[in-house]
Amino acid sequence: MGLADYFGFDEHDTDLRTEVVAGVTTFLAMSYIVVVNPAVMTQITQDGEVVKPGIALANYSYAETVQMLAVVTLLASAVAMLVMAFYANRPFGLAPGLGLNAFFAFTVVGALGVPWQTALAAVFVEGILFIALTAVGAREYVIKLFPEPVKFAVGTGIGLFLAIIGLEAMGIVVGDAGTILALGDLAQNPVAILAVVGLFFTVALQARGVTGSIIIGIVATTVTGAALTYAGVVDPGVLAGEFVRNGGFAASELPKAQYDVTPLAGAFIEGFRNVEAFSFALIVFTFFFVDFFDTAGTLVGVGQAGGFLNDDGDLPDADEPLMADAVGTTFGAMLGTSTVTTYVESATGVEEGGRTGMVALVVAVLFLLSLAVVPLAAAIPQYASHIALVVVALLMLANVTAVDWDDITQSIPAGLTILVMPFTYSIAYGIAAGIISYPIAKVAAGEFDDVELGQWLLAGAFVVYFYVRTSGVLAAAV
């Protein structure tokens, strides 16, 4: 059986050339994650103090840890996309999710103080749970219970959440005691100036329809920072390392290639040791809710962008692509990274005419080939890599147009979903606010019959979730 027959090209009105072009397009659109995921996941210390929480490996430098995470990112993504290609036959790309990796690093490891090995163990357990629930069709059923306005609002809320993380890393947004957030001193900060220029360059490429605009923008910003350092315009260490200013990229000064992921692979097993059952269950519970509904929202958002949703706003046979992200999540946790999910950038390949799993197969192969350039991931500064978060945030705002803002019972849950996510720095809180408010708004408007029993149960479950996350029970347990 040839590829055309296996993937059903005729049935989906496509051909091999179209599918390959769509796969390359999707790869270029989402390849930035190879740089960004390690940047988000790796711990950063300064003068012995942790300035950004995440994964830290004893006896390994920041650059070596970044490269390990880049390898793990590529492998986990490729495995998930192979399942997507040959099992689900959908043109969706998958990789560790933006927002979910931030939840892993900033909330679980940072705010809660949970060891990163235990956080990986929690991701592994919820991945196994997802495989089981997907196999029996439970995940697809729960997603169908998702209130429609929340489905369409999740992507926008996640976008705003990512935007704050990205803008802060770029020096554009800073904390302020009086206003909580404020504009940074852009004119006095070379990092912020270059990041702003890089951002506008990237969005200009995006507006021109240039394929791979995000990764081009990241690389161009990085190269510019190195050039300004080499020319003496800024001091070494501000935009690029000391070795750039001192005469170029000497092999002895660059981080050596690090493909051995042994320190990460299997670390989740250590996370199970000496874990108190109740506290670990609460961590898994938290991961489960965030991952479940974040993945569901992203999948629906991508399905919406690709025109795959039916008249009820549901993705037909959603259990198959859900299995791909469940397998990817489990495998990724075993290797050492956070939750794998479907990428909104998959819509770029769909726009090129991609309609089958052949697109996912092409992206998987290109991700595996990208292992050759893993050492370059450590050379990308955070201010450049986080441009991707802001650009993706802008793209994710588009889903908000699907909400019926003239219907108050739709606008209230959608609006709360969007507002609560960035303002509480939590994807889960935003989803919870939307799901809880939906039945309340419907009942208040006299539309009690529009609320299903399952939606009441979801709302009740999220009330419990709010209590667990805000009462101090979880923090006390861990």
From TrEMBL:
The chain crosses the membrane at residues 66-87, 94-113, 119-138, 150-174, 186-205, 277-302, 322-344, 356-377, 383-402, 414-436, 456-477. GO terms for molecular function: purine nucleobase transmembrane transporter activity. InterPro entries: Azg-like (IPR045018), Azg-like_bact_archaea (IPR026033), NCS2 (IPR006043). GO terms for cellular component: plasma membrane. It holds the Pfam family Xan_ur_permease. Keywords: Cell membrane, Membrane, Transmembrane, Transmembrane helix, Transport. PANTHER family: XANTHINE/URACIL PERMEASE C887.17-RELATED (PTHR43337), XANTHINE_URACIL PERMEASE C887.17-RELATED (PTHR43337:SF1). Belongs to the nucleobase:cation symporter-2 (NCS2) (TC 2.A.40) family. Azg-like subfamily. This is Putative MFS transporter, AGZA family, xanthine/uracil permease.
